[in-house]
Structures are given as structure tokens and as C-alpha cells.
Amino acid sequence: MPLVYPIVARHEIVGAVTRIGSAVSKLHRGKLGNRNKGNGNKGAHTDACRSDAYRSRRAGRRVRKAGRESWCWAMRTALITGTSRGIGREVARTLASEGWYVLSGVRDPKSAPPGTHAEVVDMGDGESISALAKRLRARNQPLDALVNNAGVYNGAARQIWRVNVLGPLFLTRALEPLFSPNARVVMVTSGLGQLSAQPASLIKRLSDPNLSLSDIERLAEEAPGGYGPSKAALNAMARLFANELKPRGILVNAISPGWVRTDMGGRNAPRSVEQGAASILRGVRLPSDGPTGGVFEDGQAIE
User: Fold this and answer.
1) How confident is the model at residue 75 (pLDDT cuts 50, 70, 90)?
2) Domains: count for the chain
């Protein structure tokens, strides 16, 4: 017997969708409007939500009225640190262009990429990190992705470890309650952080099966080495957070952009900023059955 579908008038469908859209629109204005308060790019979220260019892979479809966006469904949110230039800026720009609500962690709000919302934070300052986390918690800001991108290459060892290790550790720990189910966390690392390339004493400590986040914190206070060792510690930290957050479906990985032509990488580096950002974005876009606790570059395990 052939399947028989009920006949519903087109105007009834449109009317129902319009009524639902109106209700959701009011909800978004009430709840999501709070996202536009704070530092930088006021109103960016609402504008992006209503724009004809809006795309949401979570929503899957859009509802139009008179040729314009009448409302949109849940917009995914990403916090990316170090977005004033280089790889972080390109990652933020790309996600914003895809319809994400992007929070740009920067020291100067004027340096945030266009189309993103500036959030002032100094990743080498624990109080600044706490202030950012407090602001986000106060407005109950859900996070679908966190990209710990800010980092330093040169300088005193303590400052390198403070920014490259303690900063991501404190920020990730403080924001854990805000992570959405199945969120993605990316620790931006480097090939220079491969464990096998580190001093034997550091390899032993980071390979300890009983290693904890508290151990990483103590190690960072000692600052045994420069950039490479700090990234090796970041890789180990990604593994620890991955184990901790796995029950919530949250995937945490350390991802290298490769040697990229940035202020840090230099103009002789073989890879473009876009190529480096693409490697990082793989970690943000991982499917629910994707890997966690690993170290990757361009989707391939490097450790």
C-alpha cells in the first residue's frame, strides 16, 4: 500500500514557521543580546545572526522573510586567544565568516579582527585571565570551542612558560563549566615541542603516568627551558585535559600549524598563514568520534 501524506496548505506552513521564528527572535534578543555588551565590536553577534551571509552548520537551514534573515537558530561560539595577528587572526576570521560568534582574546580591543567580539585578556597575567573567565561566567556564555593560540617564542624562560603553559592551563580550567557538550579545545603547539627532542629529565617528568595538572603548574613555575620545552608541556597538558573532559564528549588536542610565515615564524617559513590556520581549524571541526589527547599537524599525528 502506498504511503499517504497529509496535505497541508503552504500558507499554513509559512504561518507556523513565522510564528515560531518570531518567538525565537524575541528569545535571542533577550538572551543573546547580552553577548554584545563588553569590549569591542558592539552588536556584532546580533548583526551576524540577522545577516543574509549567516551560515550555521548546527542549524542546517535558514528561515527568510521578504528576502532577509528573520531569525536564526543557535549560533556556535568560539573563544580564540592571540587574534591580533597571524594564525589566531586567520582562525578567528574564518570561523566568523562561517557564522560562528567569535570572541577574540586580545590585549588591545582595537586589534580584534572585524566581525568578532573583543575580549581583553593578557595570557601572561593570571588576574587578567581570571577577569575574562569571570565576565564570561557572569553572562553564562556557552563555549563550543576554545583555541589557546596566544604564545611567545623569545624572552625570559619564566615569561615563555607563563604565556605558553600557565595561561592555557588557567583559562581552560576556569572555563570548563561553560563548555558545551561536545565542545572542542585546541592547544596550539609546535613541532619543536615533540617529546623526543626534549632533555631526558623533562621527558621523564612529562611521561610519568601519574602526571597531573598540578604537576604541570609546578613545572611551569620552574620553567626548565624555552619555547620547545614549554610546548612539550602544553602537549602533555592537552592529554590530561582530554582525559578529564572526555566524559562530557569534549575533545582536546594539541595541534601544530607547522612552520608558518608569521612574525614568529619569519618570512622564510614554507607555509602560509592560511595553511597554518587550516591545520588548527581541523581541531575545531572534529566530528564527535574524532581523536582526543593527541598531537597533530594537518590532521596527522606527529607524536
Assistant:
1) confident
2) 2
Are 282 and 183 part of one and the same domain? yes
Which structural domain range is residue 151 located in? 77-301
| Shared domain check, 297 and 196 | yes
Give pLDDT, residue 74: 58
* Helices and strands per DSSP (H, E), number in the chain: 10, 10
Are residue 91 and residue 54 in the same domain, yes or no?
no
Q: For residue 100, give every residue at least 6 positions away whose Cβ sits within 8 Å of its Cβ, in sequence order, or none.
A: 75, 76, 77, 78, 144, 145
What φ, ψ does residue 188 adopt, rounded to 5°?
A: -80, 115
Give CA separation, 114 vs 43, 75, 88, 101, 144, in Å: 12, 18, 13, 12, 20
Q: Examine the fold and report which residue of 29, 52, 71 is the final residue of a domain before the chain moves on.
A: 71
The residue out of 45, 71, 97 marking a domain boundary is 71
Cell match 562561517: residue? Answer: 98
E-state strands within the chain: 63-65, 68-71, 77-81, 101-106, 117-120, 143-148, 179-188, 251-256, 295-297, 300-301
Reported as a pLDDT band with limits 50, 70 and 90, residue 29 is very low
The C-alpha atoms of residue 193 and residue 181 are separated, in whole angstroms, by 29
Please indicate whether residue 262 or residue 88 has the higher confidence score (pLDDT). 88
